[in-house]
């Protein structure tokens, strides 16, 4: 499922090159054979040297200043399923569509690194750039003229731009086959752009959202295209069924139950001003008036995709930060996690029943009262990573540490868990038992919500802490048919004793996906059905191609369905769920 991805601003540009000044080494003054006036003194050996065959005096060659070393570009290895890796597939597609070669878009990195003139030629403003494609990371891509080699083109990334936009940009960073830019002006908006939809005062500067200028239906279409492209790029050998429509989130705003604002403390110079408190900036775009300052962190007072309670917590912590920031010796991240508690004692004041949480300026815990059916609820905002918080999902109760992973949009979780459960069923004679293995179970979300439809559940996770909470959550929800094992997913089949023909498996790994060791063991076990839930559709596509084509029994499976779930409206992120069955 989704992971928080820390938003780190990119370095602005390659440092401005220039030749280092080299001062010649001062020559030592030879004071030998000189009197105090500095005149040469005559010696016997000098007189003997005045002969017909007198040798010419030898002089030491003055040392020349060292030549400045040329700076070299060092390419970094990137995971092909990461945004930087996927970008290379998107660039290749642009080349093919425009009948260009890699050389046609190659940038002279050596000149940029070693020539101030080249540096300034490349990093310039460009008008009338047309956005021709949207990346999986939510940025626009355009083809512009190379400023030095006029027969060439450049591929440029433009944040906050969408297909069809005509824009003015400022190029600030150069890579071997693309450049990065800031969006300065929307000259003409594309057919999908509607700036009246933008509700955030920081959109266009904060890196959190990319799609506020789009209708929600258009956002869902773009996310479906992201899934289609992922399988086209990372699983080109597979024949996949048509990608189903993306399941929308019931809430498009005020849905995030966790936020992590942060701030930077300089290690090089004393911090004399209060640092910005918020989220990473996306370059230095100025295409619309925004709040938040012009630093690498946008100073944010409210996040419109965060829940009301989390935003109250952020206001509390911002106020506290005004007086405590000098106590910090280094940069830090503040945890804001919503917690929900059922108020059972209606006679005792709510304030006396609350767990520790974010407090206001009067040192009183901030909370919001709500009702759910017959229950009275109190929501608070937790800031301590080790504190236990509670979520209520579709009639189930889950507890976990505030700093541990758990889904951040609980409004869509009932739809996801119901979809997963409905796809675990295996055709079998009436009365035949059904088993479930949850390979990356965490604190038990899928294991517990799917437990009613199977006879036995085995949950496995590498985190002993997660397994501890999974066991407690099973007990709390009166789930008697689940067992949980702490251990690496690569070795889980050593612990599984359920008959494979009657077993379904849920795979829910981190963003990096599964490794080939796990996929080979999964193939050898040969479960009847597999449901793969992923927060990174690109690693999911890679894994499925490896599983189906490179493992012993992968050829016995077919992809039944593939669709996205929108956990994060207004952003480019999309969850994907694929269902496989053994033929």
Automatic annotation (TrEMBL):
Q: Which positions are annotated as binding S-adenosyl-L-methionine?
A: 407, 440, 461, 508
Q: Does the keyword Ribosomal protein apply?
A: no
Q: Where is the composition biased (Polar residues)?
A: 40-52
> Annotated region Disordered: where?
1-79
Q: Does the keyword Transferase apply?
A: yes
Entry keywords, A to Z: Methyltransferase, S-adenosyl-L-methionine, Transferase
Drop me one GO molecular function for this one.
Answer: tRNA (uracil(54)-C5)-methyltransferase activity, S-adenosyl methionine-dependent
Limits of the TRAM domain: 120-185
Biological processes per GO annotation: methylation; RNA modification; tRNA processing
Q: Give me the stretches of Basic and acidic residues compositional bias.
A: 27-37, 53-65
Catalytic center residues: 535
Q: Of which family is this protein a member?
A: Belongs to the class I-like SAM-binding methyltransferase superfamily. RNA M5U methyltransferase family.
User: Entry's NCBIfam families?
Assistant: rumA
The protein, known as: TRAM domain-containing protein
Classification of source organism: Eukaryota, Fungi, Dikarya, Ascomycota, Saccharomycotina
């Amino acid at each position: 499922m989704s992971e928080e991805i820390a938003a780190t601003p990119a370095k602005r540009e390659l440092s401005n090159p220039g030749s280092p000044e080299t001062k010649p080494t001062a020559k030592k003054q030879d004071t030998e054979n000189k009197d105090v006036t500095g005149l040469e003194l005559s010696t016997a050996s000098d007189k003997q040297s005045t002969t017909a065959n007198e040798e010419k005096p030898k002089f030491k060659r003055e040392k020349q200043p060292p030549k400045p070393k040329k700076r070299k570009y060092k390419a970094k290895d990137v995971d092909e399923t990461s945004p930087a890796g996927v970008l290379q597939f998107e660039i290749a597609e642009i080349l093919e569509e425009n009948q260009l070669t890699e050389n046609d878009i190659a940038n002279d990195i050596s000149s940029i690194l070693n020539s101030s003139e080249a540096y300034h030629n490349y990093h310039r403003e460009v008008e009338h750039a047309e956005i021709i494609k949207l990346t999986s990371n939510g940025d626009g891509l355009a083809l512009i003229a190379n400023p030095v080699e006029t027969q060439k083109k450049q591929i440029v990334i433009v944040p906050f731009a969408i297909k069809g936009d005509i824009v003015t940009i400022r190029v600030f960073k150069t890579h071997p086959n693309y450049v990065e830019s800031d969006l300065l002006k929307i000259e003409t908006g594309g057919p999908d752009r509607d700036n009246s939809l933008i509700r955030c005062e920081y959109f266009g500067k904060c890196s959190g959202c990319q799609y506020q200028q789009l209708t929600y239906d258009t956002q869902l279409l773009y996310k479906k295209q992201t899934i289609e492209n992922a399988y086209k790029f990372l699983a080109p050998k597979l024949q996949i069924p048509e990608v189903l429509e993306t399941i929308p989130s019931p809430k498009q705003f005020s849905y995030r139950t966790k936020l992590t604002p942060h701030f930077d403390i300089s290690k090089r110079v004393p911090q004399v001003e209060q640092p910005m408190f918020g989220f990473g900036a996306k370059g230095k775009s100025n295409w619309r008036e925004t709040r938040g300052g012009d630093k690498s962190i946008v100073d944010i007072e409210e996040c419109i995709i965060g829940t009301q309670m989390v935003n109250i917590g952020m206001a509390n912590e911002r106020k506290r930060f005004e007086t405590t920031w000098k106590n910090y010796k280094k940069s830090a991240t503040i945890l804001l996690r919503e917690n929900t508690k059922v108020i059972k004692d209606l006679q005792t004041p709510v304030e006396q029943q609350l767990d520790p949480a974010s407090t206001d300026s009067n040192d009183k815990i901030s909370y919001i009262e709500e009702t759910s059916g017959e229950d009275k609820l109190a929501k608070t905002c937790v800031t301590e990573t080790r504190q236990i918080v509670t979520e209520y999902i579709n009639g189930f109760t889950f507890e976990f540490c505030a700093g541990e992973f758990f889904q951040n949009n609980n409004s869509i979780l009932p739809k996801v868990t119901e979809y997963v459960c409905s796809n675990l069923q295996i055709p079998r004679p009436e009365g035949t038992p059904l088993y479930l293995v949850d390979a990356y179970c965490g604190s038990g979300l899928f294991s517990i919500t799917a437990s009613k439809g199977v006879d036995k559940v085995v949950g496995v996770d590498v985190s002993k802490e997660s397994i501890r909470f999974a066991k407690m959550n099973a007990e709390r929800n009166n789930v008697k048919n689940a067992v949980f094992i702490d251990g690496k997913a690569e070795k889980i089949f050593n612990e599984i004793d359920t008959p494979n023909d009657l077993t379904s498996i849920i795979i829910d790994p981190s963003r990096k996906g599964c490794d080939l060791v796990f996929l080979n063991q999964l193939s050898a076990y040969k479960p009847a059905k597999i449901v793969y839930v992923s927060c990174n559709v690109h690693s999911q596509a890679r894994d499925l191609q490896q599983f189906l084509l490179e493992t012993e029994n992968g050829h016995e499976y077919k992809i039944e369905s593939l669709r996205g779930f929108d956990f994060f409206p207004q952003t480019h992120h999309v969850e994907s769920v694929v269902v496989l069955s053994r033929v």
